Structure formats: C-alpha cells, structure tokens
Amino acid sequence: MNIRYNKENSIAYFDNNYNLVMTNFDCQESQFILDDKNNTCRFCGKTKNEVTFSNKCHAIPELLGNKKIITNNECDICNHYYGDTIESDLGKFTSPLRTLDHIKGKNKIPKYRDVKNPRNTAEFLNGTLYVQNRNMLTVDQENKRLCFNLKTEKCIPINVYKSLVRIALNCMPKEYFDKFDNIKWLKSDETIELNKMYTNIFFKIIPNIPQMFNIFLFIRKNEVQNIPYCQMVLISNNLFFQVIIPFLNEDKILSDVVEIAECNFGLKDEKEHYTNIINLSSKKNTYISLAINTNYKKIENFK
Q: Hey, where are the domains in the chain?
C-alpha cells in the first residue's frame, strides 16, 4: 500500500470524506463524562460484578493536560495496567514537547534534560522558557522562530502509538468502538503487521493560536473508499497530534494508493508550522530525535 499526502486541500479532504463523530469543542461543563451505560469495561469486557470502576479514569491521560474528559468505560485493572505500560511510554515520548508547550500534567510542567548531554536542559518557569545550552536550538530572528533539536526519554515507539489509539477508543461513540477488531493487541506483544499508514503520526507545535484542549474523531463516510476509516486529532495547548486508528477490517477496501491529508483547520500560513511525521512501529526501547519549531516573543541573555 502506498501513501499519497494531500498538502493542498485539507479542509475539503475532511469535509468531503469524513463525519465528525466526537469532539468536546463546545462543552462548557467542568467535566465531560463518557459512559456507555452498560457497566462494562471496553478493554477487557468485564462487568461491575467482576471488576471495580472506582478510580477517576481520564479518557485522555492527565499528563497531556486533560482535567476534563473522564470515562466510566474503563475498569480499575485496565486503567492501572495501561498507566504502568503504554501510557508510561507516551509520557516519555511527549516529555520534551510538554516542556516546550508548558503543558502541566498531574503535578507540574516537566523539565527537559538530555540524558546523553546533561548540559542540554530546558525548563518553563513563571511564563518563561529557560534554555541552558545554545547548541540545543537555532534561531530565526527575522521571523522570531526557534527550532529545537531534542531527544525523548527512552521509550518504546509502538507503545506510544498504542497509547494514542487507546485515547481514540476511549472517546469514540460505542457504535464505532464495536467495529474495532484488535482490542487484545493493546495489551499484548502480539505482532500485527501494521502498514506505515497507521504508525506514521503527524505532530507539531502550532504557534499563535489560543491555547485549548480538544479531541476530534473522524469516521469515513459510507460512500468513500480510498482513505482510512478513522482518524483522531488531539490538541493540548498548542501541541497537535493526528493519528490514524487501525480499523483493519474496515480498511480492507483500501486500494494500493491511499490519500491522507493533514488536518489544519484552515490555519493560515500552514507551512510555518513545520509538521513532523514520525513512524512509531518499532518495538525497541530507544531515544527518538525530534526537531520542534515554534515562535517566540522575546529572547534575553542568549549567546
């Protein structure tokens, strides 16, 4: 299967090919609670007679800044399991991104430190990002733009991808969740040959937009064929992820060429946002290099 990236008509691509089936964009409540009303865990299939549902379960990990979207559809056992495994890898992968975008998780904004070069540190304090080593970044003073060259903590890429898939499965309406046929894959080392269409994710930091926390889930329209069945867009502060969810059975109809477009919500000057496409298929515990671009208002004491 070959991938063709559509870089010109993002809005038309999503409007013509997808239905938006879930978003918390308009929710004004202090909590947005997801509940199938069947007292059953989505991930293990056990009921309240077999397992407990006592924990406050965040449908999107709190480490990404989610304080609002809660699910009643995940039991305590599954919640603890995912928190200790794949969610841990997501935290390690996103740690430098959360530093740059000052995303506060359960406790505080993480401090960045390069394990291989301890002099490379960055910390967000009192509204200011403090960078200790000039070699960590390049500066475009004319356009007030920074490019950071960072490394994640050591993590397992496929677990990062699984954790993002779990977010989508937690948040999607049950009628679509019921079509997902790989739920056991989230908890096992079972090898599923996933095309890079799935494990390639988009991410970036989008400058000059109001800080927000939103999730958007798109499901392919019935009459459409040569695009993936389900895509998720997740925005925390200015950090943007776009992930294709592996509905393998629904995607059997795809031809040899699949079209994918980045969801840019009509943002102007999209080329300045420097989208990263990274493949998360590896099962090896490794550091991942990231080149992250963002804007700045003012630099002081920088040599």
A: 2-295
